[in-house]
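Researcher: Quick test of sequence recovery. Tokens follow.
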């Protein structure tokens, strides 16, 4: 890390069996921050993998002083991996993004500029459904349909008003990240819903921003199985968040 100074920006990247994509993504991250004057850190959270992902991540970290590898030693899910990284992040602004960089790194600039221009904004969501988003490589029709249906269900249940909860590109001011991820519990893909419900329930200002997006054909999401699992979690997550907040209020009393 850059001496004793806290980074301005933290990037959390979860990785599970990402030997094919991760080295290139980490090179791009190094190149991106090498062109800026930002103090930064990149936290690579590796779940137990069988393809050498951990070794590749450690090799990249040995060449980049601002890269850190978190070895989870288990494979519990994307939510768990991101939670581990977000709790370790020290930046004033904290991002998490997918290892395939389906949202190109240049979008970091747009989010940083938005935070600077809007000091009241505390959580920013990349939204593929935003009318100004540029979808340059689309998902297959079934995956698009399942994703849109999932978000329609969330809105119809009055759980969340957002058009795209599952885009893997989100950013938080440090205080919001610390409070939200201290309470977040879901390990699987529905963790995004829990994160946004917690942000909303805790009173943080959440904004959706357009992004440039390129679908990765090597997605780890199983269309039907994981969509049904996320939907089942969505029906229980609101009650879970309510219980977490009640226990928190009781502990403060």
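Model:
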């Amino acid at each position: 890390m850059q001496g004793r100074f806290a980074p301005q920006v933290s990037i959390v990247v979860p990785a599970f069996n990402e030997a094919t994509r991760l080295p290139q993504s980490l090179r791009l991250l190094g190149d991106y921050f090498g062109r800026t004057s930002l103090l930064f850190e990149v936290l690579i959270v590796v779940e137990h993998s069988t393809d050498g992902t951990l070794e590749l991540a450690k090799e990249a970290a040995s060449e980049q002083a601002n890269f850190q590898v978190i070895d989870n030693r288990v494979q519990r899910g994307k939510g768990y991996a991101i939670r581990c990284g977000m709790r370790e992040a020290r930046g004033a602004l904290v991002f998490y993004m997918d290892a395939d960089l389906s949202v190109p790194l240049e979008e970091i600039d747009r989010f940083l500029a938005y935070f600077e221009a809007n000091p009241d904004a505390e959580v920013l969501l990349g939204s593929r459904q935003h009318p100004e988003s540029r979808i340059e490589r689309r998902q297959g029709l079934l995956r698009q349909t399942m994703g849109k249906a999932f978000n329609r269900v969330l809105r119809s249940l009055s759980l969340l008003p957002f058009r795209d909860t599952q885009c893997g590109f989100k950013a938080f001011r440090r205080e919001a990240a610390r409070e939200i991820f201290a309470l977040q519990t879901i390990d699987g893909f529905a963790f995004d819903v829990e994160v946004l419900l917690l942000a909303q329930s805790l009173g943080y200002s959440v904004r959706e921003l357009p992004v440039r997006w390129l679908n990765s054909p090597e997605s780890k999401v199983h269309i039907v199985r994981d969509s049904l699992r996320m939907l089942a979690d969505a029906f229980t997550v609101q009650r879970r968040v309510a219980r977490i907040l009640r226990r928190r209020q009781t502990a403060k009393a």
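The helical segments are 22-34, 53-63, 78-88, 107-117, 141-156, 174-183, 191-201, 223-252.
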